[in-house]
Every structure is written in structure tokens, then in C-alpha cells.
Amino acid sequence: MSADLLTVEGLSIAYGPTVVVHDVSFSLAQGESLALIGESGSGKSTIAKAILRLLPHGEATATGRVALNGRDVLGLPEKQFRPLRGRELGFIPQDPASALNPVRTIGAQAHEAAALLGETDPAVRRARILDVLEQVGLPDPVRVYDSYPHQLSGGMLQRVLIALTVLPRPSLIVADEPTSALDVTVQKLILDMLTELRQELDISLLLITHDLAIAAERADSLVVLKDGAVQESGSSRDIFTAPQTDYARSLQADVPALHPDRYRAQRTVFAAEPTHDVVFRPAAVASRSTGLQIDVQGVTKRFSAGGKDVLACDGVSFAVERGRTHALVGESGSGKTTAVRLLLGLEQPDSGRISVAGQSTSGRSRAEVRDIRRHLQLVYQNPFTSLDPTWRVGRIVREPLDQFGVGTKPERARRVEEALASVGLPTDVASRRPAHLSGGQRQRVAIARALVVRPDVVVLDEPTSALDVSVQAGILELLSKLQRELGLTYLFVSHDLALVRQVADTVSVLRKGQVVEAGAVEDIFSRPQHTYTRALLDSIPLATPAAALGGIAAEAKQPAKATA
Amino acid sequence: MTGDYRRFALTRAGQAIVVVLLAYVFTFLIISVLPGDAITNTLRDPQHGLSEEDIQRIVAFYGLDQPVIVQLLLSLGRFLTGELGFSLQSNLPVSQIVGDALPSTLTLATTALLIAIIFAVAIAYGAQYLPGKWAAIVRSIPSFFLSVPNFVIGLILIEFFAFRLHSFTTTDPHSPVATLFAAITLAIPVSAPLAEVLIASLDHESRQEYALVARSRGLSEARLFAKHLVKPSALPSVAMVALIVGELLGGSVITETIFGRDGIGTVVQKAVTGEDQPVLQAVVSLSAVVFVAVNLVADLASPLLDPRVKLRETKLKEKVGA
Amino acid sequence: MTAILSNTQLRDLGSTPRKLTAGLPPATVLLSFAVVLVVILWSLVPGLFTSLSPVTGDTASKLAAPSAAHWFGTDYLGRDQYARVVHGTASSVTSALVAVLIGLVIGSIIGLASGFRGGWVDAVLGRFVDVLLAIPGFLLAVVIVSSLGFQTINAAIATGVSAVAVFARLMRAEVMRVRGATYVEASYLQGGNRLHALLGHVLPNAYRSVLVLAVLQFGTSILIIASLAFLGYGDPPPASDWGLLVASGKTYVTAPWLVYAPALVIVITVLSVNRISRWLRNAK
């Protein structure tokens, strides 16, 4: 035990009378990495802050023992702890965009980290800073040095933060969801870089994450947390191959990459044929023939912002057959959001043609577009912003009926009840406001609102990305069930290829406003043609499990296959 | 950047000029269109002892026998050339009346502004760094300052410092000590919104993740405050300082009355009781000029202070959320 | 626990984060409400609180110090100062109310139109608001009241007009914030038109902070109207508006209670109103 770099024993943390972390213990040996994993409210970030002693003064009280190199630091006066900050204990925060002072240059802030080296000559410090910026893979260190934070991208900022953290050579780095605010491909590059740097400099890592796949891929051991208590801990391999607790098992089952066929059984009932030979049609072949619910042809949209023209959509084409799910995949700036807004008529395309259920949406009057919208509904990404906080759930779900003037008053009430029941919500939520619902419940309300007018096509804009993993699975199950029962056509927008593989039949990969690759999901996954698609696939954690973990994925598939 | 900045500065300056002109028109309309044939009443007031020729001359000068729109254009045209007209009460040039009163008010207002800034910074610093209970008390000070009418503060200060402690006498209201107390009177209500903005932005900034990260790098609280928090908190405060200039100009009317000081405030008082429209018009328009100019400076400074400010997006009204 | 995997729906139903800030507001807020209640009662039924007349006094007991008979003492005509304060409440409170209503209604309409419509409407109304802001509020009030004539109601109107800009600016900012909200866009997709979005979503989400401002502005209006009365721009004596009482009391240096009693009433009232406003803002 005494050889451990970090030992946490019986750590409990309370905000006032509310205890949020209960008796947590774990230890981390020099040079090793450990991941604290849990969903929101699991207390993982609070534990990290307690170790770093960054909990708000006077509001939070921590009891127990946190020992760094055998020395208890929890009760240490701040004056004695401060020399350890940065030099022994580094911190990489979650959101790189807010982790640097916006009104000071990177260089000015880097000098604070460089000062911890004990170097007094500013020129030497600057040289050390430029070195480390280069080391983390920033192409033009001098330019970065002189930049303000808002002039750099999220990925670059996270590299800067990592650089500043490793600069004083701490023995332990605490990284709080270091990549969850970044695009998936960037995420992988950053994690790779961090792993490499860590090994090179012999730095231990305490990784805080909600993503079991990332944790298993990047950490030697895991501590699974739920509601502030340890559920299970041990080596990543053990927990992954043989989770002992129900909670760890459920987390493992909810990792999309491990269970590509999870929802397939529920979905394919409607389209009885094998999925890969029908669904995708290249744009040129697509016709007004039966069955095409969405047909987007060569749509282009240009925005001008700040004097610069941005081509958000550059000749985008895709088509979706009735009852199928088509995915638009891309990272931020890929144009997927613009494509959706064009489809929904929230923006007008500069050129190209869009038709929904055989009806062209261009050149229509406002009333006609409104009519088309009845058949075309949207579920937003974030249920925390898509529901009016001042309305009650019943009124929220009834809104489309009221606005489209569907049915009589009692009929509407009945349909609202039905819609709520179909998304698995009890009727009494109708009288509640969104603030009294959980994220998953809110998203169910949003789905009920979309379905209450009985649309043919539903656009799902990252419908689970704002939710916890375990809640995600519930929502995806529900969506698959509703698709099968109602014969809905889905357009599924996502950045997550692993998720797309679970839910979609066909996919278009978008990058910088262009479709770089399109086809049946199976084809794209087994034979990606474009380098960008390959990069996206590579960035899925555990998508190509290492030999050691290969067995886990296979094992985990068993229960899912049983239902097929 | 420089080309962008020049365009930004010119647009802002143009808008400022438009606002000043509109403010002039607005004031003119309130003074002359609202009920009452004030001007001729004032002129005929035997107290002022104007001769019939004087009256004829003034009527011709202001175009009082012509439609309001002509009067407005005449008056606005003169304002643009810096000509403020003549007082209806004393027949003196308005520029002379204002010029005589201005130094006293400027001294009062700038002293008050300094005191207000000192008060606000002290309150904000105390709210941030005093131990728990004291910080809570300090935090409630701005709300208290906002609840006390400025004439009550003035009367209390006079009662204690002039009548009881004899720190100054009310017979010499322009002495340095008397000026100081008058300035405190004016500063107290004005310091409250400034302190509130400072407290709010210090709270906001110190909760930001970058402050946490800086702490994790071993920065002491004092260095964190000096290096990280002061600058971003100063930005909204600069805008607020510019806004409270208006309050200072308005508040000087009361303060000067209580302390018996001569200044713009007393000029306004006299003009109101004497229905002396040209004087009133001039004082209000010049206040608007001062206010707009100060805010223009604050506005032009903000992109230089804050690298994030996008030149095309800022608008005078949006900077300070109420 | 064993049901977790088989029924995922149960899982997200179980974790309902309910924030129950049940219980009473803090003691200072309750006290503030009590003060406001007393002030309202003073203005509605002054006779319940004092049997003495605010206009006629007993010159034999003039300029008497506060006592059991005369809580706030008496003035130079021997009138009970407490009775004068109580009877002056109605005028002080209603005029502040009128001022707030003017500012709230006109300001909100301007802000709503400006923020929701945007474009040239915003540009035109924006310049108008800029003009109102550019003229120092108290000076503007003085000019307006001097044009309308020296009466308390005119002082109230003047105070209201000078508050229009503050309300307009806040309403505009709130409307612009809400207008871009996802749920407003969603309402268009649910077949709603602009009017529905405005009345159904934007207004209900925007008005709260404007109402909080209205409460705060009520306190400020009491101060401004008192200041105008202090300068003699309100109703002339024997009216007993709070500001006027302070002004007429200040000539009697030997009887400081004539100043401090009404001054204290003003301060306590405004302090209470501000406290309530701050509580509303934080409880929102």
C-alpha cells in the first residue's frame, strides 16, 4: 500500500447536510492509470475535486483520507498544500473552451505553469513553453503562444491545457472528462497523445469519465461509481470481461460499440428482407417511385457570416425509404445540422430539390409547407432546451394538435394520453412541468410531442447525446419499438458511428458540407472507402478491440443475439 | 482589425451624433409642445422687467410667432453651431450662465465619481474576501445604499458634520470639506449599482473553470485576483461607470440644493421655477452630450480591453444587461 | 436493482431530480412583506391607524418631541407628524404605482416589438430608447414635470416616462434570449405561427425578470417622486407626501424628528421592496 502514489480511504463528501459521496476507497500506483466511471450524479467529479482540493470553500466538507505518496493531504493547510499544486498534482478540465482566461494570451497563462519549474529567466521559460506546445502536437507554437483562447479550436485548446499540465512534470494528472466536449476524431487524437506523453514522462493518470469504453481502453483499473458509492472496482480487464454487479453489467451492455445488433431484431420486422441490398440508392437513381419518404437532391446552402462565405451544404443528396432509418453522420461543421434545417423548411436552400413523401417542399406557400410539416416531425438533441419550461407536459404534447387543429377537444386529450402511454410515461406526468422530469423523461415527452400528429417521417437530431448512457439505451429501444409499430421513417443525425451502426439501415457520411461516403451501414462498417470514414471508425473506442478485450465483446453479444 | 476598428468607431460615433440630435428634438418637444403658453407668460412676467422691445427681440429671435417646426429648426440650427440663445429671465447668454455654473458641478461630480468607485471597489473586495458573515453584511450594503434618498443622506451628513462636529459650515458650501461631503452624498446612491456589477462579475469570474484551473496550478488567491479576475470584471464595470455619469448629473440637482451650492443643479432649479425654456433646453441637451460622449468612449475602449468583443456585434444597449 | 436491465424505462423514471425548496422565505423577506402590508393599509385605510387629523393641529403643542401621544412628534402647526405620514402614504404609494405602470406598459411594448420583430422596428425603437437613456433620468423627470405642471400625479408620469428605457431594454434582451430558444423553433415545427410563438412561448418566458424589475422600480419610483416632492415639484402643502414632509421638516433644526421620521419611513419601505425584489429574482 505504501508504494501507492495516491490512496483514497473512506472518502465522504457532503454539501451541507446532503452527502454526495459515501465512503469511497481506491488506490493508484506510480505510473498506472485509473478511471473513475459513472453517470451524472455519481460523484466522480466531486471526488476528483476533493483530491485536487478544489471544492468550494465552506460549502463542501470532505472526510476520510486522501494520501499522496503516503502523506495525507486532505487536512493539510492550504499553505502546505499549495506547493504540491501543479508540481505534483496536475489537472485537465472538461471544457477546454472555458478553462483558459479569455482576456489573457496563452503565453501569459503558460508562464504561470512554467513558473512552477523554478525557472526565473523569462526567455528560458518561453523556450520551455514553446517546446511543450510542440510536444503536444501543436503545429505553430509561436502563433499559439501569442493567441487568445477564443482564436483556437477546442482540440487545440485541450492540447494547450495538457501541455501546461505536463510542463511542471507532475507525478499525477487528474483529467475530468478531458475529451467529452470535443469531436470524436479529435477525441481519439488527444487521448492517444495523452497516453503517449504519460508513458514517456512516467505520469500517473486519474481519468474521470462517463464512457465505459474510453475508460476500459485508456485505464489499467476502474472504479465504477453510482450515487456517490463504489459499485465495483478492479482491473479494467476483469470488470470488462466479468462485471460482478448489475450496475456494471448494465453499463457494459449499454456501450454501443460492443453490441452492434442490439436493436436490429426489433427494427427489422417491418422490412422483412435483408437490409443491405435495398435501402440505399445513389442520388442519381432515386426517383419519384413509391416508397421514398425523403428525397434530397443536390442541395446547396451558403451562409455569409462576418464577411466570409461558408458553404454549409455543398450538393448534398440522400434518400430514405419508407420504414427505414437513414443516418447523417458528421462532426461539428459537417453540415448535418444545416441539412436537417433545410429539410424541415427552417432554411431555404440556394439550389437543389427536397421532397417529403413525394411532395416537393420548394416553391410552396407557407400554408402548404405547414401541411407538409404535419408529416415531418423533429426530436431535438437537448430535451432540456426543447420543452418550454413554463408549460405543463400535457399542453406541450397537445401543442401540435392545437396548432394544426386536429380533432375535437376530447379527442385531443385522448391522443395526448395515448402518446404519453406509447412512450412509456405514466399519465400523471401530464400535469407536471419539464423541470420536474429527468432528462430521459423529457426526451420521451419530446418524442410524444413529435408522434402525436402521427407523422410519417421523424428527424432525430442526436436524440440521445445529451443523456446518460443507461438512459440512452431506453430511448433507443423506445424509438425502435415505435418505428416497428407505426412504420415510421427516421432520419437519424449523429456524430457517433457506433450508435449509428445499432440503429440505422443506411448512412451518409458528411464532411465540410459534402457527402463523402454513403451506403448500407454494413458496407460502410466493413469496407469504408473514404479516409475520413476510416478515421471516424477508428475513433470509436473499443471498435476494434485489442486481443485481450476481443473476448469481452464477443461474450457481451450473446444476450443480444439470443433475441435475434 | 484596424480597418474593422475604424469602421466600428465611425459607426458608433455616427450613432452617438444621431442620438444627441434626437435628444435635443425630444427635449424641445417636451418643453414647447406640452400644455401652457409658457414662453410668453415668462416674458410678460413683470418681475423680469423686460421692456416691450426686449420682448419683441426675443420673440423674433426664437421665432415664437411662427409654427413649432420652424422654432425647432431655428433652435436646432443654432445648437449645431454652438449658439445656446438667451435666458428669458435675465436676458444673459445661456452659454454664460452654464459656463459660470459648470466648474462647481464638474468638481462635485468628478469627486463623487471617484468616491463612488472607491466605495464600490471596497465593497466588492470585501464581499469577495472577508470571512463569511462579514461578507454577507458587506453584500447587503448596495441594497441599503439604493434605499436611502440622496436628500436624506445630505441632511444627515449636514446635521452631524456641520451642526454637531463643525467639520464645515453651510455658509461656505464651496469649501473643500463641504465639497467632499456633498460629493459623498452624491456618491452613495451612485456607488450601489457599480458595486453590484462588480460583485456579480467577480462572483461570475471566480466560478469560471479557468479560475479553478489557475488554482490547480498553485496560484494564491491574491495572484488569482490580480492576474485573472480584475481584468474581466473591469469590463462590465467600465460600461456601468459610463452609465452612472447620467445619475451623477441628475443627482447634482438635489445635492446642490441641500448644500446650497451654486452649479448646474441650481441653474436647472431656477430655470424650472422661472419657466426659462432656453436654459432648460441647453442644460438637458448638454447633459445628453456628456452622457453620450462618455458612453462612446467606454464603447470604443471595450474592443481594446476585451479581445473577444466582436466589432460588428456590440451595441450600446446590449452591453449592460439590466 | 435486478429489474434494471430488463426494463430500461423504469430507470429513467426512477431518477426524477426534484428540487423541493419547500418552506417559508427567509425572515427578512417575511419582515419586508409585513412592512409592505402596513404601507398598503396606511394608504387604503389611514383612519384605522390614527385618529388625528393631518391638516389641523393644536398650536399649543407645536414642535413637540416624539411621545406616546405623538409618535413622530408634531410640526410647527402642532399637527401630528405620524398622522401626516400615514395620510401622505396613499399619494406616495399610488404615484409610485402609476410611475411603474407607465414604465412597465410602454417599456414592455417597445421592448417586445423591438426584440421580436427586429429589423427596422428594432432600429427605430432602439434609437428612441437610446434618447431616453441619454437624458439623465432625474433631469428628464424634472423637465417633464415642469412642462406638465407641479403636481404629484405629473411627477408620477414624469418618473414613469424616465423609467421606460430601463424596461424596454430589459424586455428586449429577454425577448431576444427567448426568441432563439429551441422550444420556440419547435413551436413553428408544431404548426404554430408567429403570434402563437409570441404569446404562447416568448412572453411567458420573458416577463418574469421584467416583473422583478417592476418591483425594484417601485422602490426607485418612491425615491424619485419623494425627491421631486422635496424640490417642491409635487402637490403643495397641506398635502403630506413623504418627500414634502422631509423638505418642510428640514427648516426646523431644533425638531430633527420632523425630518427623520418620514425619512425613516421612506428608507424602510424602499429597503423592504428591494429585499422582496431580490428574493423574487433569486427564487425565479
From TrEMBL, chain C:
Keyword Acetylation: no
Major localization listed first in the record, in broad terms: membrane
Membrane topology: Multi-pass membrane protein
Superkingdom, natural source: Bacteria
ABC transmembrane type-1 domain boundaries: 89-277
Parts of the chain that traverse the membrane: 20-45, 96-116, 128-147, 153-171, 210-234, 254-274
InterPro entries (alphabetical): BP-dependent_transpt_permease (IPR050366), MetI-like (IPR000515), MetI-like_sf (IPR035906)
Subcellular location: Cell membrane
Keyword terms of this UniProt record: Cell membrane, Membrane, Transmembrane, Transmembrane helix, Transport
Pfam families xref list: BPD_transp_1 (PF00528)
Claim: Transport is one of the keywords in the record: yes
Annotated Gene3D superfamilies: MetI-like
Family: Belongs to the binding-protein-dependent transport system permease family.
Name by which UniProt lists this protein: Peptide/nickel transport system permease protein
Native source species: Paenarthrobacter histidinolovorans
Lineage: Bacteria, Bacillati, Actinomycetota, Actinomycetes, Micrococcales
